[in-house]
Amino acid sequence: MNIRRWSYGFLAATLLVPALAACGSDTDDKPAASGSSPSAPSVPADPKEALLASTKELGKGDFTFTLAGADTTGGGLVHKPSNSAQFTVKFGDASEDVSLEMDLIYIDSESWVKMDMGGAMAAAIPGATKNKGKYQHLDKTKIKDVKDLQLDPETLDPLASDALVKGVTEVQKTGEGTYAGKIDITAATESAALDEEVVTALGAQAKALPFTAKLDPQGRLTELVIAVPAAGETAAHEIKIGYTGYGTGAGAQKPPADKVVEAPAETYEMFK
């Protein structure tokens, strides 16, 4: 079981994102209201253009999201107005050699991570059970040079759905706000929704996977489902991404003080 492969995509995709993006943005930008309005943009008639336009609202950095995949469930929020983000994710279960439940919180210049590992081999992983149930406060001076945590300052969506929809190769509208077609995921491996090892194992199949998508009445992406066939050691599964709460977020909250410890050396070793 590769803990590095499990954790880094999610950590790298969320840690530091709001602050870095804010550095290159107009602080007077206001999030769009989540409901319909007379000024709401019309949905492009062309299906591909509709999908490309559907991710633009994510760039404003105020939404909640969910993710489900092979042995993975998660969700969280991005809230640029308060310069905060949170991501909770669960990999595997207690019946496997190793399972992991992770909760990452970022608020302004501080970040915390809670990593609870289970399974038969958890005790053999250095530091795996040392701080179970605790939020580890991360010292950014110790992770600032970690390549896996260097982020694109313009990225606000950890699932990188904008990159995913750019890979759509065939699409047709199947109903009001619903679409289906084929998608090439090979150019969107920065998305936390994808496992690079699975993408590699898929080979040419990764360039034409079936997908469905749903948009709300304002043309914003609310669901993207990609059907992934069996590849390597991974069984066939669906990657399901969901978005809600556009422009209505309240921001992440600091963990309770009595649940916080400073991250030990073992945690930083996992990031290397």
Task: Please tell me about this protein's structure.
With 272 residues, this protein is an alpha+beta fold. The chain has a single domain, classed as outer membrane lipoprotein receptor (LolB), chain A (Clam), CATH 2.50.20. Helix content is 17%, strand content 31%. It has six helices and twelve strands. It has a twelve-stranded mixed beta sheet. The chain is globular and about 55 Å long. It starts with a helix and ends with a helix. Mean pLDDT is 81; it is low at 1-38 and 147-153.
Q: Largest sheet, described in full? A: 12 strands, mixed
Please indicate the count of domains: 1
Major beta sheet, strand line-up? 7-8-9-10-11-1-2-3-4-5-6-12
User: What oligomeric arrangement do these chains adopt?
Assistant: single chain
State the share of residues found in helices, binned by percent.
10-25%
Report, as a whole number of angstroms, the end-to-end distance: 17 Å
Are there runs of 5+ residues with pLDDT below 50, and where? 1-38, 147-153
Average pLDDT over all residues: 81
Count the strands? 12
**Alpha-carbon Rg, integer:** 19 Å
SSE order, one letter for each helix or strand: HHHEEEEEEHEEHEEEEH
What is the 3D form?
globular
CATH topology type: outer membrane lipoprotein receptor (LolB), chain A
Q: Please indicate the percent range of residues in DSSP E strands (runs of 2 or more).
A: 25-35%
Question: What structural category do the secondary elements indicate?
Answer: alpha+beta
In DSSP terms, counting alpha (H) and pi (I) runs of 4 or more, how many helices?
6
So what's the CATH class?
Mainly Beta
Q: What is the CATH architecture term?
A: Clam
